[in-house]
Each structure stands twice: as structure tokens, then as C-alpha cells.
Amino acid sequence: MTKTNSTIFHSAIIFMLLLEIKIQLSDASDFLVDRSKTGLIHVPKDLSLKTTNLDISRNCISELSASDILSLSKLRILIISHNRIQYLNISVFEFNQELEYLDLSHNMLEKISCHPTVNLKHLDLSFNAFDFLPICKEFGNMSQLQFLGLSATRLQKSSVLPIAHLHIGKVLLVLGDSYGEKEDPESLQELNTESLHIVFPTSQEFHFILDVSINTAVSLELSNIQCVLHNNGCSYFLNVLSKLQKNSRLSNLTLNNIITTWYSFITILQSVWHTSVEFFSISNVKLQGHLDFRDFDYSDTSLKTLSIHQVVSDTFTLSQSYIYKIFSNMNIQNFTVTGTQMMHMVCPSQMSPFLHLDFSNNLLTDMVFNNCGNLARLETLSLQMNQLKKLANIVHMTKEMKSLQLDISQNSLSYDENEGYCFWTISLLSLNMSSNILTNSVFRCLPPRVKVLDLHNNRIRNIPTDVTSLEALQELNVAFNSLAHLPGCGSFSSLSVLTIDYNAISNPSAHFFQSCQKIRSIKAGNNPFQCTCELREFIQSIGQVSREVVEGWPDSYKCDYPESYKDTLLKDFHVSPLSCNTALLIVTIGVTGLVFAVTVTILCIYFDLPWYLRMMCQWTQTRHRARNINLDELQRTLQFHAFISYSGHDSVWVKSELLPNLEKEDIRICLHERNFVPGKSIVENIVTCIENSYKSIFVLSPNFVQSEWGHYELYFAHHHLFHEGSNNLILILLEPIPKYSIPSSYHKLKILMAQRTYLEWPKEKNKHGLFWANLRASIHIKLMKQAKEIAHTYI
Ligand SMILES: *[C@@H]1O[C@H](CO)[C@@H](O)[C@H](O)[C@H]1NC(C)=O
Ligand SMILES: *[C@@H]1O[C@H](CO)[C@@H](O)[C@H](O)[C@H]1NC(C)=O
Ligand SMILES: *[C@@H]1O[C@H](CO)[C@@H](O)[C@H](O)[C@H]1NC(C)=O
Ligand SMILES: *[C@@H]1O[C@H](CO)[C@@H](O)[C@H](O)[C@H]1NC(C)=O
Ligand SMILES: *[C@@H]1O[C@H](CO)[C@@H](O)[C@H](O)[C@H]1NC(C)=O
């Protein structure tokens, strides 16, 4: 194969794989169709042919024909319960060979007709209007049947025969309201099922003689047992129960929805006590009447677990002590009583075999099992959701219990240190005190060897530091409290799981992970974190542990404060190290200041910075003034740009430096000796020059002051050349003039010198550029250039 060929070949394979994946994906999205509760009258026609699960329950469908579902050849699960179907020909499923789960319960089926049919695993025909059991002989071929739901008002032994050879996992039999007229007690005997659930008709006294003891059944559930009439004392039902004794395989018995008397209730318990039943559960019981003292025969029982759920009693004056006595002395391992009005439970009169007691959701008080030494074998005790108030009483209650896991959550427990007594049994390993009203003081009343401690949803504000250490504590849950700090593991050296979310922790300590070396999991989210500098260290410390350790990270860890960071994830909160470290900040500011000062000093010393600054300052000022210049005014004095006055001693500098530098920029200069008008005195010439020049430049030096200044002083005084704001004057200080050398009568010169409004001729060559620039700016070259054009036309 050539290289190109092989590439094409590979692409083709990849393409086909993708195609296949795509097909599978579209399959996955197609096959589940839920059209329940959509008001359908017919089976919808628009279904995908790939549909495997179809739910059209709770609609108004009254008919099911082959054409409805013929095309759904992939259908495996079909749920049409709670509709109005009255008749069914099971051969409508002839073409749905994959169908294995069919739920037709809660319809109005009166009749089905059977033909060779599919091999279902689950067929539910319960809660329908059948008169006789809807079992066709064809059902005998459903070799895989696991669940069969039936309903009937009349039972016949013969009806069951077609399926007698099948071993069905569970059979549900719902008896219609008119059941019971012509009963055949033996009618269910041929049923071959592991688990049987019979629903008796509601609103009918239990008057049945049906034998529910099926040889094969391990588990039996009976619903709707109503026997309140005193004259029969529930004898029919007790008779049914008594027959259970002959089935030694039966181990699970469940009774649902019972209305009877206290007396019958205890009799029912007594009756089951002597069967092979191991797990007995009773739920939804309504009890009437009173209970007088009676003996309970605990002997000869297989029972291990009794669960009683949801009992209401219509008598309030009932003397409950008999009941407590009967319950507490039961010789079983597991006993559950939940959702009742039980207020108390007495101590067993001898060492009890109870291992697991669940008395949650009742009305028990702290006095439960008061002073009880006979529950020493108890392993778990749940008193969740009761009326417990004082923790000290619970501590006292458990003092004889050897290895207990205790759940006293969802009560109103509190602990008052002043009440003293707090010596938990040493062996208490797991304690659930969540959802109570416990405060910080609870940490002074904890079992010393406790491993699992649940204190969530209480009123704890902080964990006192001086508590006795709980060295065995591995799991601590203090979520939903008001803790302001993350505790260290000082007192809990074995702590591996800490749940502390939903508290008031704003600045968790960064030392947590150092202190808690054994921590495997910490859940600290949903606290009002203050995103300030202190928090950075904590965030960093989280970064150093493995991500699995911090539960809920990063999503439930958010800033609460300051406002600008609110709801920012801690993971995304960053501040610069500088702004957080005061020492570093001070050092940085100090160093920066120092460097600046040194730089300035160096600049001053080596580069004469002040001179530059002055020059720059003057330059900007002249630029600024130039902008305000009035052109009209210029036009009057345009013959020269500048007049230069200087001492003859300085003429070398003027001729070799000043003139060339100005004239090369086309600045017209008036020199009194060069532009001398004969017949005028020197002073007159000077004055003419000044008057025809825009600016007057004076080259100042000690010589100038000595020899020339006097010529001008008079004129200046006369023409107010120095009055405030005059800007036609430019002074160049060629050489420093000592103050004392200025004659005392030269006021103006002194003022000008003091104001430093002169340009200083720098000795350093590199500064000359700036000097000339400044000077030219003072003469307003630009403006002069513009003005020059105007001048030409004017002249
Ligand atoms: C049930 O359907 C099958 C196949 O469609 C048909 O042969 C049979 O006659 C029907 N049975 C009744 C009672 O209608
Ligand atoms: C059960 O199936 C067998 C073979 O598949 C067939 O011979 C027999 O007639 C079927 N019985 C019924 C009642 O449909
Ligand atoms: C019987 O009850 C026990 C405990 O509830 C349960 O584990 C077991 O599965 C039940 N057995 C049957 C056959 O239902
Ligand atoms: C008793 O209850 C405990 C705890 O609920 C459970 O683990 C155990 O399996 C139960 N034992 C029996 C025999 O039902
Ligand atoms: C404690 O009891 C509560 C219910 O009241 C439950 O949600 C929680 O999981 C229990 N804690 C432990 C550690 O079992």
C-alpha cells in the first residue's frame, strides 16, 4: 500500500468510528420517552422507532391496539398505568419481541385475552376491575417472570394452576372491594412465589378466611387490615396469622394500614412471636380503646427485628406503662419505634438482648431509661427528634452502656455547666448531638474517647481552648454554628475530618494545616471570608495541601467582605505582597526616597540641575507670554528684533558668540555703534535703537555695571521700561556681579538681580545649546517670523 493510500484508509476508519459513535449517541437520546400526565387519549403515533422505554402513564387512554405499538420493535419497557383501558388482547405485543416490562396497573381492565405472547419479566395487572384472576394458560410460558401484579374479586385455586410451576420473585395480589363473598381459603396454595403481597379491600372489616401461608414464601406483606369490632376481637385476622406457623420458611412479615384496638395489636404481636418470622415490620397503625394489664409470652421466638412506624392512638387517657413494659422486655436484637406518641420507655427488668434501638421521632423526654443498668449490650441508640432537654440527664442515662453509638440529634438539648454532672461512659465512640441548642459549654461535657462527634446546627460561638483533649476524635462536624475561628488541632490530635462550613469564620488561621497534620478532609466553605491581607496566608496554605482535602474548593469559598470583592472566589483573590507587608512597604518607600535624594544630589553637584531648572522655568514662562503677545503692538516696533547693549570689555563675547548665534536665526539686531546715525549723541542713538527694537538685550557683567548702566538709567526711569510686567527687557548675566559692586543708586538693577530674571551664561559648553534656545525663545522668533511678513508689506 502506498503512503497516500494508507492515509486515506486510516481516515476512513476514523470517519466510520465517529459515525458509529454519533449513531450510538442519538440512540441514547431517543430511547427514553416520557409522555406521562400529558392528557393523551390514544397512544401517540409520533414515537421514534428506536424507543425502548415508553411511559404513557396517568393519561386517559382507553384502548391499546396492535397498530399503536406494532412498529416499536425495540420496546423493552412500557408503562401504561393509571389510564382507562378496559380490555386487552395481549397479542397486541406480538411484534414487540423485546418487551420485558409491562405495567398496566390502575386501569379498568375487566378482561384480557391471551395468545402466544412475549416472555415478560415484569407484568403488572394489579388495581384493575378483574373478577377472576387474570392468569391465562399462556402465562405458563413466561419462564423469566420476576414480578406478577394481579387483581380479582374472586379467587379460585384453578386460576393459579397455569403458573404453579414458575418460581416467581414477587406476586402482588389486590383484592377488589367485593371480595369475600364465596371464599376458597385454599385458593392461593398453589402460588409459587418467594414474596407475596396481598392488598385487602379497604373500608371493609377483616372477615376473610384466606390462607396466606404459601409454602414457598419467605416474605409476606399484608395491607389494609381493619378489625375494630369488639365482638370478634380481630379473630379472623388472628386466625390468618396463626396459620403462618406452618410455613417455616417465612422470615419477613410486614403489615400496613391497620386499624384495630390496643388489645388486638398486642395480640397480633404475640401471635407473630411464635412463628418463624425474623423481621417484623408494622406501619401506619390506628389504635383505639384501652389496654389492661396482660402478660406477654416472649418464649420460643425467631424474631430478631421489630419495627413499628407511624402509630396514632385515639385515646389519651391510656395507661401507657403496660405497653412500655411489654416493649422494653422484648427479647430481640433490633427494635424500632418511630413516628408515635410514645413519651417514655422503661428500663428492661433484666439484662436485655437489645443491640440496636431506634426511637426516633417520638415524644420521649430526658427520663427515658432512667437509671438503667440492663441495656449494657446496646450498640446503637437513636433518640433523634424527641423532647430531650438536659444533656446531663442523657449523660446519666448512658453511664452503664458499654459500647454505644448515640444519636440525640434534633432535640432541645442544652448543657449547663453549673449542673455539674458530666461523666460520659468511657466507651462512647460516636455521638450525634446535631440540631440542638448547645453552646460553647458542650465542650466541657464530651465523652473522652469519642471518635465521631456531630455538633452541627447548634449555638456554638467558639471552642474553648482549655477543654480536656479528645485524643481519639477523628471526625468533628460543627457546621451551621456561629464559630468565628478555625480551631487548631491542639486538643484533637487525631482529627482527620472537620466540617465547619456555614459558620462566621472571616479570617481563618493559616496555621490550621500545620496544627492538624492528620487532616484528610476539611469542609469550610460558605463562611463570610474577609478578603484582606491576612487571608492570603490561609489561601496559600490551602494551595499547599492536596485538593481532595479541601471539600467544596473552590466554589463554596467566597469573599464576603470588602464589598468590592463580594462573591469573588477565594481562589481568584490576589493582592500584591507589597501592600500586605508593612515592614516591606516602609523599607521600599525608604529606599525609593533615598535613591531619589541621592540622584537629585548627584544631579545638582555634577550637572548643575538648578541652573537647568531655572532655564526651563524661564523658557516656559516666555513661551507662555509669547502666546499673549499683541501683534498690533509688534508692528509698531518692527525695524529690529533686538537691541544689544554691552560693555566694550565684553565685545569679544558679543561679536563671537551672541551675534552669530542670533543672526543665524535671521534675528535683526541693532548695535548702537553699527547702526550709528551721525549727528546724534550716543545716548540719542541708543534711544533710537531701543525704540526701533522689539526687545532690549543687556549683557551684564561687572564691567557693564561700572561703565554703561548709567547711560540707561535715566532713560529707563523716563520711559517706565522697568514697570511691572514689562517684558521687552532681556538681561544676560555674562559674569556674576557681586552685590557690593552695584552702585547703591542703581535701584532697578538691584531689584532685577534680586528677582533673578536674567539668563545666566553658562561656562560649561554642553549647556550653551539650552542657553541659546532660551534666549531665542525670549525674542519670540516664531512670532517675529510671522511679523516679518507683515512688516515687509508695512514698510
Ligand atoms: C387477539 O389478537 C389476535 C391477533 O391479533 C387475534 O388472532 C385474536 O382473535 C384476538 N383475540 C380476541 C379475543 O379478539
Ligand atoms: C409454551 O411454549 C411451548 C414451546 O415454545 C409450546 O409448545 C406451548 O404450546 C406453549 N404453551 C402455551 C400455553 O402457550
Ligand atoms: C427481609 O427483611 C430484611 C430486613 O428488612 C431484608 O434485608 C431482606 O431483604 C428481606 N427479605 C425479603 C425476601 O424480602
Ligand atoms: C439491626 O440494626 C442494625 C443497625 O440498624 C443493622 O446494622 C443490623 O443489620 C440489624 N440487624 C438485624 C438482625 O436486623
Ligand atoms: C446526625 O444526625 C443527623 C440527623 O439528625 C444526620 O443528618 C447526620 O448525618 C448524623 N451524623 C452522623 C455523623 O451520623
Automatic annotation (TrEMBL):
| Signal sequence interval, chain numbering | 1-28
**Record's PROSITE patterns?**
LRR (PS51450), TIR (PS50104)
Enumerate the UniProt keywords alphabetically. Answer: Disulfide bond, Glycoprotein, Immunity, Inflammatory response, Innate immunity, Leucine-rich repeat, Membrane, NAD, Receptor, Repeat, Signal, Transmembrane, Transmembrane helix
Entry keyword annotation includes Oxidoreductase: no
- One of the Pfam families matching this protein, by short name: TIR
Which residues are listed as membrane-spanning? 583-607
- Gene Ontology CC: one annotated term: Golgi apparatus
Which SUPFAM superfamilies does the UniProt record give? L domain-like (SSF52058), Toll/Interleukin receptor TIR domain (SSF52200)
* Superkingdom to which the source organism belongs: Eukaryota
Q: Which GO terms describe its molecular function?
A: identical protein binding; lipopeptide binding; Toll-like receptor 2 binding; transmembrane signaling receptor activity
Give the main localization category.
Answer: membrane
* Record membrane topology: Single-pass type I membrane protein
According to the UniProt record, which cysteines are disulfide-bonded?
422-445
Name its cellular compartments: Membrane
List GO BP terms, alphabetically. cellular response to triacyl bacterial lipopeptide; detection of triacyl bacterial lipopeptide; inflammatory response; innate immune response; positive regulation of interleukin-6 production; positive regulation of interleukin-8 production; positive regulation of toll-like receptor 2 signaling pathway; positive regulation of tumor necrosis factor production
| Family assignment from sequence similarity | Belongs to the Toll-like receptor family.
The record describes the protein's role as: Participates in the innate immune response to microbial agents. Specifically recognizes diacylated and triacylated lipopeptides. Cooperates with TLR2 to mediate the innate immune response to bacterial lipoproteins or lipopeptides.
Q: What is this protein called?
A: Toll-like receptor 1
